[in-house]
Specification:
By secondary structure, this protein is of the alpha/beta class. It is about 35% helix and about 25% strand. The structure holds 5-O-phosphono-beta-D-ribofuranosylamine (GRF). The site of 5-O-phosphono-beta-D-ribofuranosylamine has 14 residues, from helix 1, strand 5 and helix 6. Belongs to the GART family.
Length: about 200
């Protein structure tokens, strides 16, 4: 299956996915990285020989135009699956309509706790002792789609946002590879709020 990854940040999750595809851990052709801004992920894609496309909101006249342009770019790439790995924009209706139930997202908290762009900071501010990460299907909301997998990560007394987020990302990278491999190999069964994936055979 053809895979496109969406990212906006340092791209460490993208890089881990790219390594997993190259190693045959994820049965996919990594077609491209798509981002909303020039970012370190673009540099990693270049180093890995993966085409990168920037579709920046500033280049389009409003959110709907950007959503349409992003959808058009993604459709051109003919992906079977999209993985959002640190993409810091809400995917609009044009993108969602083009790839229904075909977009995975990873979030650095145990949803439904701490949705949104500051999950790690919010968890620390709340004083939780356990946080973690969630891989879910993307729906029209913010981090609200059916959950596919979660893993817990302890919060240590002297944690700050960076130390906790790095500890979560170590777990998140491997969870994302496992779920992406299983979903690309066997698909997803969605029954209301319950989305089930099957670990890749073998
Ligand atoms: C990940 O924790 C992701 O869940 C969050 O941002 C981080 C992306 O990390 N949205 P990176 O840019 O892949 O290093």
């Amino acid at each position: 299956p053809r895979l496109v990854v969406l990212a906006s940040g340092t791209g460490s999750l993208f890089a881990r996915l790219a390594e997993a595809v190259a190693a045959g851990e994820v049965p996919a052709e990594l077609v491209a990285l798509v981002t909303d801004r020039p970012c370190a992920a673009v540099d990693r894609a270049a180093a890995l020989g993966v085409p990168a496309h920037v579709v920046a909101p500033a280049d389009h006249d409003g959110r709907a135009a950007w959503d349409a342009a992003l959808a058009a770019r993604l459709v051109d790439l003919r992906p079977d699956w999209l993985v959002s790995a640190g993409f810091m924009r809400i995917l609009g209706p044009a993108v969602l309509a083009a790839f229904p139930q075909r977009i995975l997202n990873t979030h650095p908290a145990l949803l439904p706790s701490f949705p949104g762009a500051h999950a790690v900071r919010d968890a620390l501010a709340h004083g939780v002792r356990v946080s973690g990460c969630t891989v879910h299907l993307v729906d029209a909301g913010t981090d609200t789609g059916p959950v596919l997998a979660q893993e817990a990560v302890p919060v240590l007394p002297d944690d700050d946002e960076d130390s906790l987020h790095e500890r979560i990302k170590v777990v998140e990278r491997d969870l994302l590879v496992r779920v992406t491999a299983g979903v690309l190999a066997s698909g997803v069964d969605v029954d209301g709020r319950r989305a089930t994936w099957h670990p890749a055979a073998g």
